[in-house]
Input
Amino acid sequence: MKFPRTSGGFYAWLFQRLTGILLVILLIIHFAITHNFPKGGGVTYAAVAPRLATATWKVFDLTFLVCALFHGLNGVWMVVQDYVHSETAQTWIFYALCTLGLILLVLGAITVIPFKA
Amino acid sequence: MLEKPSVIKRYRLHIGTIAWILHRVTGLLLVFYLMLHIWVTHHLSQGPAGFNKVMKAVQSPLFLFLEIGLLGCVLYHAFNGLRIIIVEFSKEGVEAHKQIFAAMMAVAIFLFLVGGVPMFIHFLHTLAG
Output
């Protein structure tokens, strides 16, 4: 497919779709494994810790985290662009969303990366 | 910036419009859940005691009930999102967008019942103690 020449908005649009598809796949895996589908069972420390301590799940969870934060906050940004008409306010909200994303990314990363069972 | 023409009081509620509104509402709710989820999961760093304590709090009847709503939001947002991608990337998708919406919602509602009914029963059990 040939895409037209464009500005940053095109990439936001494209990545919203790519992360969206990825999130559907990752979410199915995340949900099925975490909730021990179809048997079910409590999500306790003893049940989740050994899995979360493995490198494979750390990579999985970090990918999941990055995709979810981008998709979610980019979604909020799209809503903001539709309803907030002042450019100054838009700029401030943009930086606020970036900061929020960074805080959540760090909070998620310091949970996932150094985790030992 | 495009202004809404003053003669338009309100846009007509076509299926696509309703789908779009619901996509935004469920999307915003899911962002709120994502923040909560990252914060709750962070308690893993405090070891078994800290994590199990916060998990117990979010397994109260109120949260079990809200989780059914979460399932609904996730399913709607995921299946409508897939519809958006199909419609945007194919000519056939544009022409059959209403049928695609119906099909996606049929799957979403089916999965909502499959997941939501056991969740509701579990909620009632917890409520009864």
Observations:
- Chain B has one domain: 15-128.
- The first helix of chain B runs from residue 15 to 41.
- Chain B has a mean pLDDT of 91.
- Chain B is about 80% helix and 0% strand.
